[in-house]
Every structure is written in C-alpha cells, then in structure tokens.
Amino acid sequence: MYPVQKNSNAGGVIAGRSPLFLLPVIALIVLLDEWVKWQALHNLPNESAIIKPEAVVFAIHKNWGIAFDIPFKMPLIILISIVIGAALLWVAARNALSRPIITFAALMIVIGAAGNLYDRLAYGFTVDYIILLGRSAINISDIVIVSGVITLLSASRVRNGIDKCELPE
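Structure (tokenized):
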C-alpha cells in the first residue's frame, strides 16, 4: 500500500477562491475610467483654470511624460510600456497556479497601464482628471496600477502565507 497524504493543502496554500475572478471587475473599472476621461476632456476645465486649489479638484491635466510628468519621448514611453507589460504577463503566467495573488497583482498593473497606454495612443498624452492638493494629477487607471504594485510587493514578501482569498461559497 502507498501512504495517503493527510494534508490535501500542502505547501502552505489555503484552499479558497483565487483572486483572479476579480480581474473582469478591474477591467470594467478601467473601461469606466476611459469613459470618464472622455467626459472629462469634453466637460472639465484645464487645471490652469483653477484659481484656489482644494484638497481634491476635478480638472484636466495632460500628462505628456511618464509618472510625475517626467518628460520622455512618446515612442520610448510606448516601448518601455510594452516591455514592462510583457514582463508582467510573464510573471503572471509563471505564477498562475502556484501563487495566484502574484498573477492577480501583475495583471492589475497590466490592465491599469493598458488604460493609460490607450490614452497615449488615442490622445498623445495621459488624461489625468483628479488633482490632489493642487499638485498631483491622477486617474482611476493610476489607482489600479498603484494598487497592483502594492499588492505585488506585499504578496512577493509572503512565501508560505495565504495565496488565495477565503471567500464564503
């Protein structure tokens, strides 16, 4: 007789639903972001029209560069975006079965970045419409990217911890 393994969830992975089921929701949020960007371009003032900045203001900021308005040539931005996106897709595929939270985080970053890449291809700049403290300009895709980065960093630090979300059936 062969011995039977008593722990069916060996390796520290807790049985549960993978967070990957949330990816369509994230994609819908980024599609909503694209619709909001289009509306903002047609209905919001430019940020230069803001006289007295408040904590949060809705206005158009055209980001011609990369993060924090660092200037870069558009072809270079697109090339870097594609290379980083391909690397993240590789990370997602490599961890799909063993560490689904890593896959989820990597795909969140890719989905958010795809929203901003679409802006660059369609408008020539990224459309930011949330001005924070009169200084930082962001959009929902940026929030998705940062959330994915935080999730990826925190999940990559956990070796044998929870890799799946415990959700009620």
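Residues 25-46+54-157 form one domain. The mean pLDDT is 82.
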